[in-house]
Amino acid sequence: MEKLSKTSLNYCLSEYLEDLKRAGVKDFRKMPANSAQPVQNAPVKQSKPARLQETPVPEAGVQPQDRREPAQLNVVSPAPAGEDRASKLAQLAQQIAQCTLCPALVQNRTQTVFGTGDPYAELCFVGEGPGAEEDLQGKPFVGRSGQLLTDMIEKGMGIKRDSVFICNIVRCRPPQNRNPEKQEANNCRPFLDATLDVVQPKFICCLGSIAATNLLQTDKPIGKLRGIVHDYNGVKVVCTYHPAYLLRNPSAKKQTWDDLKLLMREMGLQIPGK
Q1: What is the mean pLDDT of residues 246-271?
Q2: What is the pTM of this model?
Q3: CA neighbor of 228 nearest in space, from 220, 239, 219
Q4: Which of 134, 137, 180, 238 could form a disulfide bond with 263, CB atoms 3.0-4.6 angstroms apart?
């Protein structure tokens, strides 16, 4: 084939474009590749833009980690049959000693006061919180009110103090021996429940209104809670006055003795003098 000059090529291209214009095609690039006849400009189908997937945007000032559930207290589980309850209680006591949920109590305490007594006791006494002497010794009910509680147990009920288990609603001494606040009792509640789960008592005696209202989750005064057998997860509960109240109000000892006799009847114990 004869080689065409550059000028000849330009001339041929120009003529070709003129032929396309006369045929009604404005742009030769729109001709079908396999078509011998030129076609009119076809409308261009507009494709829908791809839909972007929306990504949730955190609220202003809120980081993803802020949406996590509050941490739960990891207390020891109830002691299975055959396992040493004393070791379980020792583990729980160590956890309580490291607790810092209540700043006012942590700053005021000398040490935490866990509980004492028989890990397999059928009867558990629950008070409200440690006093000054309990805070120093790390044991519940060792002051004047503790001596009166010992007399109630041994002289009144005719059983040994070390045959029962004794603990409190809160395990740190409140400043100036004030009543534990509701939030402080709530913070310590998992430890109380865990303690009772390990000991598995059949009977509980609440000493005073703070112990009774917190354990039973009620707003009734102690006068309305006395003389009745209550239920705590299948455990029989009797409520009476706190020994510290009896030291200030000796006349209430008669009512307390009536409460102890109710407890003894439920436990199947012989009431002294009958």
Answers
A1: 97
A2: 0.71
A3: 239
A4: 238
Q: How far is it, in rounded angstroms, from Cα 264 to Cα 274? A: 12
Q: What is the CATH number of domain 84-267?
A: 3.40.470.10
**What ranges do the domains of the chain cover?**
84-267
- Strands (DSSP E) contained in the chain are 115-117, 123-127, 165-168, 203-207, 230-232, 235-240
User: pLDDT, tens digit, for every residue of 29-42?
Assistant: 444 444 444 434 44
From the number of C-beta atoms within 10 Å of its C-beta (0-12, 13-18, 19+), residue 35 rates as exposed
Q: What residue type is assigned to position 32 of the chain? A: P
Encode pLDDT of 188-242 as tens digits: 999 999 999 999 999 999 999 999 999 999 999 999 999 999 999 999 999 999 9
CA distance 228 to 14: 113
Q: Which residues contact 108 (CB under 8 A, 6 or more apart)?
A: 172, 173, 174, 175
- Looking at residue 11, what is its pLDDT? 53
Distant-in-sequence, close-in-space partners of 73: CB < 8 Å, separation ≥ 6:
190, 191
Please check the confidence at residue 46 and state whether its pLDDT lies above 50.
no
Euclidean distance between the first and final Cα of the chain, in Å?
Answer: 139
CB 161 within 8 A of CB 205: no
Q: What does the block give as tokens for 1?
A: 């084939």
Question: Given the DSSP bridges, would you call strands 123-127 and 165-168 parallel, antiparallel or unpaired?
Answer: parallel
Residue keyed to tokens 């160590």: 94
